[in-house]
Structure formats: C-alpha cells, structure tokens
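ingest -> validate -> predict -> emit
validate: passed (alphabet ok, no gaps, 216 aa)
predict: started
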Amino acid sequence: MHVLSDCITSYDKKKLPEMPDYYESKGCSVQTLDETMQFLLLTKLNGNRSCNRINLTMINFKEITNANIWKVCTLEPFEEQKDFVAENIQSLAEAYATRNEGGNALPLAVYNDETLVGFIMIGKGTVGNEKESELIKKNYSLWRLMIDKKYQGKGFGRQTLDAAMALIRTYPFGKADKVWLSYEPENVRAREIYRKYGFVENGEMCGNEIIAVYDL
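emit:
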C-alpha cells in the first residue's frame, strides 16, 4: 500500500510527525505527492499502462561536474560484463570529442534519489563511425547505459530506461522519430532486456554490434 505523506492527518496534531514512521512500520510505502506525480508523469510519457505496479523509487539524472566526475568514473559492472560495456571515462572522452566536432552527446550521472547508481549517455546523429545509415544520422541514440554492480538487480535499469525515454521525448537535440542502441551478439542479457522493453532489431549493424530501434 502506498501512502501520500501530504495527505496524512491525525486527530492529535502533535502526532503528525510520527505518522509516516507508523505507516512504514505497517509495511506501507510513504511518498510525497510531488514524487508520486513525477513517477506518474514518466509513466504517461513512456506509454506504460502497468500503473498497478507502481515502484516509487525516483531515478533522476544529474550533469557531470567536478563534484561527481571521478565518482562516475569509478562505477563499474560485474567482471563478466566488462567486455560489453565501455568504461565511463572512455564515454566521457567520446562525448567531449563529439561536442568539439559539433555533434550531439549528453552524458549524465544516474541517481536513485541522492545515491549515484549509474551512467547514461544520449546522442543524436553521428556516433563517429565511418559508415553510418540514415537511421543513425537522423535519430537519437541510447549511446551508453550502465548500472554499477552494487546496484544491479534492484530495477534501476528499467527505471533508467523509462527516465531516458521521457528525457528524449523532450527532444533536447531536435525532433526525431526513433531511438536506437546497439549491443554485441554475445550480450544475450542486454538483448533480452531491450527486446522486452520494446526495442526491435532492424537488421543493421553498428560496427560489430546489432542495432535495435524504438519508436518514439
């Protein structure tokens, strides 16, 4: 059961500060109205109709600054995932080079409330390959997405995807029809996660990686 803290009342006003703890002790999830509305907005933007499965964990993105850059660079996946995920410091270097050349790259730190849990990078247009299709040239890319090994298995990956799609639908680099991403054929886990989310392989490759596409 979810309880809105804004709506908690009591016949004894002195007990109001104690009420959230009381509800949590009964197994309820206490959330502010603002947090709930943010979640429902993301759900609506993503076209997600499974509102009966509300998870009120709040994933949010923050810019990479001097305050968090080295923390972001120390995030890492499990050892067996490292062949499939570029190091974040490499991604930041690619973002820097892409911007210097007039391209679009938006690297962001992923937070669960105030806890750093991952890294994401969104792009639009070229990703620096010699031969790129019209799909790549004209649309958004989910260039990088990683969740630190300490925070995997908690639903943060799916919530990060939801938040990323909501951000992309604000069209920060201009209008587009699709989002694409790529993964290595051997990365069976990522392939299945993105398939379940709604990404569809279109037969194209980005280097040695399979491209999958999501309609905005």
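DSSP finds seven helices and nine strands in the chain.
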